[in-house]
Fold:
Amino acid sequence: MRRVVVTGLGLVTPLGGDVDTTWSNLIAGKSGAGTITRFDTEGQKCTIACEVKPKDHEFGFDPDKRVDH
Structure:
């Protein structure tokens, strides 16, 4: 059997842009689901998704390098 060492943990989720925020929101029972804001959903069957909000880019992700749909 091989030994595995976890040296860190990183998360980017609809519940937060870091481990502590995501975990706190998860434990509090919060949902990351909401109305889609990234594009017009008129005429679509689904208008709900779990988006990573722009405010969550504070963790260091460059929104200019993001690829949408």
User: Anything to note?
Assistant: The first strand starts at residue 34 and ends at 35. Strands lie at 34-35, 48-49.
